[in-house]
Specification:
heterodimer, A: 195 residues, mainly alpha, Arc Repressor Mutant, subunit A, 8 helices, B: 250 residues, alpha+beta, Alpha-Beta Plaits, 2 domains, 9 helices, 5 strands, elongated
């Protein structure tokens, strides 16, 4: 059966990276079809990342679109010493960081409106509670600074290591730890206040 | 890595806090028991057992708050759809912009010296890569075409220069083009034979499909693919005389 090769994840990973490398070389030389293949391979994960970072699908789509266009322009200088995947996620992360920075000034916790009670008071209590908690968290995240939000989302929702976040954002792993810590402290306080 | 010792009474600060990985956190919070909040959470995240944290009510409270947040984070993650979002429209918009900003590369001569037909490098490269990839399991990467030396080129720069027909000022020179292609080939293939096969496929395509005069084809094997499913066709391909262009495996 085609595709049923019994590959281990590592082999599949190595094979995907090799294909990415090949496509990136071609795209850098002006092969737009190779670039289109790269867009199709990486857009879903990039969009998921951007949606988490920005909390808005339309804004995330714009950010991802701009990131890929920017990647096309920068490709001739892309040396291939980083993986294309790593490179594009770095571009998306920084694009999202800039979008967050350009939003209106961050509100303080006190200024955040208290979340409304769940719409369906009579629905099974646990489900409603879980739903409300997820919504509360999304709201509380609005109070994070752009830098805290990006580091925290990459750490908690994407499961990235401190080192890889540091590389993506261009700061030291210690600075990432500091930002994640502040984000956690802010969010625990916000969630406790609303509990 | 400096730890901000000033905000922590030395007799109460655990020595191993220096291992915790934090830099200076000027706004760190000191729990009533003397532990820093950052330290307590770091220990929990790293899964380091700490008898104090387990027995201290202040630490326990801090840990509970973090666990509560983690629980909601988990639910948030689970609430995200597992299937990939549909990005076909997004990809289409990206490619609309890309096609307005194409990089066609250099302009290269097609046909004989007295003709005035040209092709851009990216278009010629597409045909050449496809020719190389008509060999099963072969993947083509970089493909550059060096134009004949122009009038302004330094004497003796390339061997093709001598063959190039002098072009009027401001016009491109005509003459044979040099092809440099990088390929990935299956592990089980004989590399020199593979290079020859690639070269002959490329020459065939350049001559038959493009009508371009060629000074030479440099084949570089950039990677050897260790993948059994790609290697199964190796014998067929070596015997292949060129009539199974669609022989690439699915």
């Amino acid at each position: 059966m085609p595709g049923d090769r019994g590959e281990t994840p590592e082999e599949a990973d190595a094979s995907a990276r090799r294909e990415d490398g090949l496509l990136a070389v071609r795209a850098a030389e002006g092969d737009e079809e190779a670039f289109e293949a790269l867009v199709h391979r990486h857009a879903p994960i990039a969009l998921r990342l951007a949606t988490r970072l920005l909390g808005s699908r339309p804004e995330a789509e714009d950010a991802v679109q701009e990131s890929f266009v920017s990647a096309w322009r920068k490709l001739p200088e892309f040396r291939g010493d980083a993986q294309f995947g790593t490179w594009i996620y770095r571009i998306v992360t920084n694009r999202c960081l800039n979008v967050l920075r350009s939003r209106r000034p961050v509100v303080t916790l006190d200024a955040l409106p208290e979340p409304q009670a769940p719409d369906h008071e009579v629905s099974p209590a646990r489900a409603a509670e879980a739903h409300a908690a997820v919504r509360d968290l999304a709201r509380a995240m609005e109070g994070l600074s752009p830098e805290q939000r990006v580091c925290w989302v990459l750490r908690e929702l994407d499961g990235a290591s401190y080192e890889s976040i540091a590389e993506s954002v261009g700061i030291s792993p210690e600075a990432v730890r500091g930002r994640v810590f502040r984000a956690r402290r802010y969010l625990t306080e916000a969630m406790a206040a609303w509990r | 890595m400096a730890v901000n010792g000033e905000s922590v009474p030395e007799n109460e600060a655990p020595d191993d806090e220096r291992e915790a990985g934090f830099g200076v956190l000027s706004d760190d919070e000191l729990l009533p028991c003397g532990r820093k909040l950052s330290y307590v959470w770091e220990q929990v995240e790293a899964g380091v057992p700490d008898p104090h944290i387990e027995s201290c009510p202040h630490c326990t409270q801090a840990v509970d708050a973090l666990r509560h947040l983690e629980g909601i984070v988990t639910r948030t993650r689970e609430a995200t759809p597992r299937e990939d979002p549909d990005t076909s429209a997004l990809a289409g918009r990206v490619m609309d912009v890309v096609r307005l900003e194409l990089r066609p590369g250099r302009t290269l001569p097609l046909g004989d010296e007295d003709e005035d037909t040209w092709i851009v490098e990216a278009a010629a490269a597409r045909t050449i890569r496809a020719a190389a990839e008509s060999l099963p399991g072969v993947r083509a990467g970089s493909c550059r075409l060096d134009p004949p030396a122009t009038e302004t080129a330094e004497a003796g720069e390339t061997t093709e220069a001598a063959e190039a027909v002098a072009a009027p000022a401001g016009r491109l020179a005509r003459g044979p083009v040099r092809v440099r292609i990088g390929v990935q080939v299956p592990l089980t293939w004989n590399l020199p034979e593979t290079a020859d096969l690639v070269r002959s496929r490329v020459l065939e395509a350049v001559d038959g499909e493009l009508g371009m005069r060629i000074a030479g084809v440099d084949v570089t094997i950039t990677d050897v693919i260790d993948d059994e499913s790609d290697a199964t066709d190796a014998t067929d391909a070596i015997d292949d005389t060129g009539d199974s262009r669609e022989g690439r495996q699915q």
